Amino acid sequence: MIGSLGWQELLIILVILALLFGASRVASLGGALGKGIREFRSEARGEDESEDDESSDSESQSDSEDESKKT
Fold first, then answer.
1. Cα torsion for 7, 8, 11, 17, to the nearest 10°?
2. pTM to 2 decimals?
3. Is 26 within 8 Å of 14 (Cβ atoms)?
4. 3-state SS assignment for residue 60
5. Residue 12 or 54, more confident
6. CA 18 vs CA 7, 57, 62: distances in Å
7. Whole-angstrom Cα distance, residue 55 to residue 58?
C-alpha cells in the first residue's frame, strides 16, 4: 500500500502532520524514530557477533576435547 504512494502524496501527508502536531514535534518524532532504528540495527549486529563468538568458543572446546581423546 505504501509502495503505491508517490512523493507528492508523502509531501501532503507531511504537511498535514506538521499542521496537526507542529513542525518541531514532527521533527522530534522523526529524530526519535531514526534513533530507535539505529539502536535496533546495532543490537541486531551485536547479537550476530555474540552468536559468532559463542559458536567459535564451542568449536574450540570441541577441538580441545577431540585432541584430549586422541592422546
1. -120
2. 0.43
3. yes
4. helix
5. 12
6. 16, 52, 59
7. 5
